[in-house]
Design a protein that fits this description.
- The chain has 502 residues and is of the alpha/beta class.
- The protein folds into 2 domains: 9-153 and 355-498, FAD/NAD(P)-binding domain, CATH 3.50.50; 164-349, FAD/NAD(P)-binding domain.
- 29% of the residues lie in helices and 22% in strands.
- The chain contains 14 helices and 26 strands.
- It has helices at residues 3-6, 22-34, 52-55, 67-70, 86-99, 195-205, 229-238, 240-264, 266-280, 287-290, 309-315, 402-421, 446-449, 470-479, and strands at 11-18, 40-44, 106-108, 110-118, 123-130, 136-146, 170-172, 187-191, 210-215, 221-224, 303-306, 319-323, 326-329, 333-336, 341-343, 346-349, 363-365, 368-369, 377-378, 382-383, 389-391, 425-428, 438-439, 457-458, 487-490, 497-498.
- Strands 1, 2, 3, 4, 5, 6, 17, 18 and 21 form a 9-stranded mixed sheet that branches.
- A hairpin with a 6-residue loop joins β25 and β26.
- It is globular and about 75 Å long.
- Belongs to the FAD-binding monooxygenase family.
Length: 502
């Protein structure tokens, strides 16, 4: 007999989840509780769970969304602080894994190298590398669920800075924070104005000699309370589950109301934000120079600062903001275009992420490579022309993970429908091939704009129009049927057919 005949068959799973972060763990819960007969595993390339919350180690790392909406619908957030730091979020995720008995489902050091779909077999073949040993293995699965986030884990974005090699101090990116970096008593320059920068500045300012945030363009920044007194009172009165559910509904409504107000009345929103900023800053502070972006509120995500910690650092003099462009790095720090030199011992390039859809995994369908910009997002969770592939991606205008629960519920209902009717595959296909499309994420942030031509598209109508609101997705993903005239189901060896919505 040949060696191939003696080779053991690859392990087969009903669902393969890639990524053991907040989305992958959530998907594991819904499969465990909703479809207990389905076999699945969660592959994680790194050595531990948590995704973003284990990867980033910079000072002050925290969520900029409240955990009543950033957390899971099925698991109450019990901490008194609703704006939580990474260790608190990691503890919450580890508890979720234990409660759902997912420890045995997670396979660490498993990096996916590629995934190939066969219509003849109605299954994915997934190539995997063990990052701890270099060993390569193969799995097959009925469904491939991408839950690895939206950015590159191995490298953040750093633009070219003239003269970088001349600087005599340390240069670090928040995504690769050295464990032994000691900033106490040091002069620190933080380059950037986004959520990471406004988190780093007050955290480092507590022990640094001086922290200067150098921004090319201001961001909208708003103070938020670290603790939610209404949510905590509701939990005290009604218990964890009912109190959490009401707090979650309250905060979902508040997020939507703030976003809608900013989009409908941008001038009024700008005036309100400026008024709040002015009250937080020292008298006579140049608010318009450092806190007045050239774009409207929510053209990019608003930055939240818990208990106004950034403003406190500015008031007490431990931190400052400079709005200018960097001309070059020098031996001692950075030289600005205005001619001012800011000396530093440490420069932090909080300059953003590198967006990467589907974790950069090469995907083929029947031997043909899938080119993501040629695909259209279906219900914000599948791709046109790609069978049995789902992905988790959240909102840009509210808590990122709010959509995860709805998406996973819909995914489980879809799998149940396929099992009931004996289908092996389903593939979204637009009924109108000439349907107009536009970028998948209509968002002005630099990290999105740099990658927009590498991402899928969205259409101009449902189910190809990507929802941006939780309420809309409740209707689309929780209340609506999983069948659709533009979702084609098939059995192995049988003719593909369209499902009639019912």
């Amino acid at each position: 007999m040949s060696c191939e005949a003696d080779a053991p068959a690859a392990e087969h799973l009903d669902v393969l989840i890639v990524g053991a972060g907040i989305s992958g763990i959530g998907a594991g819960h819904y499969l465990t509780t909703g479809l207990p007969d389905k076999s699945f595993a969660i592959l994680e390339a790194r050595a531990d769970l948590g995704g973003t919350w284990d990867l980033f180690r910079y000072p002050g790392i925290r969520s900029d969304s409240d955990l009543h909406t950033f957390g899971y619908e099925f698991k109450p957030w019990r901490d008194a602080e609703s704006i939580a730091d990474a260790p608190q979020i990691l503890a919450y995720l580890r508890e979720t894994v234990r409660e759902n008995r997912l420890e045995s489902r997670i396979r660490y050091h498993h990096k996916v190298l590629g995934a190939s779909w066969s219509s003849e077999q109605a299954r994915w073949t997934v190539e995997i590398e063990r990052t701890d040993t270099g060993e390569r293995t193969t799995l097959t699965c009925g469904w491939f669920f991408c839950a690895m986030g939206y950015y590159r884990y191995d490298a953040g974005f750093t633009p070219h800075f003239e003269g970088r090699e001349r600087f005599r101090g340390a240069i670090v990116h928040p995504q690769q924070w050295p464990e032994d970096l000691d900033h106490a008593g040091k002069r620190v320059v933080v380059i950037g104005s986004g959520a990471t920068a406004v988190t780093l500045v007050p955290a480092m300012a507590r022990t640094a000699a001086r922290v200067t945030m150098v921004q090319r363009t201001p961001s909208y920044i708003m103070p938020v309370p670290r603790k939610d007194p209404i949510a905590n009172a509701l939990r005290g009165l009604l218990g964890d589950r009912r109190g959490y559910a009401l707090a979650r509904r309250k905060n979902i409504a508040r997020q939507r109301a703030v976003w809608s107000f900013c989009r409908r009345h941008p001038k009024a929103a700008r005036r309100i934000i400026r008024w709040v900023n002015t009250r937080q800053l020292p008298a006579g502070y140049p608010v318009d120079e450092h806190f007045s972006p050239p774009y409207d509120p929510w053209d990019q995500r608003l930055c939240a600062v818990p208990d106004g910690d950034l403003f406190q650092a500015i008031r007490n003099g431990s931190a400052s903001i400079v709005t200018d462009r960097i001309s070059t790095f020098t031996e001692k720090g950075v030289l600005l275009r205005s001619g001012r030199e800011i000396e530093a011992d440490i420069i932090v390039t909080a300059t953003g992420l590198n967006v990467r859809a589907l974790g950069g995994i090469p995907v083929t369908v029947d031997g043909a490579a899938v080119h993501l910009p040629d695909t259209i997002a279906y219900k914000g969770m599948m791709l046109s022309g790609v069978p049995n592939l789902a992905y988790a991606i959240g909102y840009t205008n509210s808590s990122w993970t709010l959509k995860v629960g709805l998406l996973c519920e819909h995914f489980c209902r879809l799998l149940a429908h396929m099992s009931t009717h004996g289908y092996d595959s389903c593939r979204p296909e637009p009924a109108d091939p000439a349907m107009p499309t536009r970028p998948f994420l209509d968002f002005g942030a630099g990290y999105i704009q740099r990658a927009v031509d590498q991402l899928p598209r969205q259409g101009d109508r449902m189910p190809w129009l990507t929802s941006t609101g939780y309420t809309d997705d409740v209707r689309l993903l929780r209340s609506d049927s999983v069948t659709d005239p533009e979702l084609r189901f098939a059995r192995v060896g049988a003719t593909e057919r369209r499902a009639v919505a019912r």
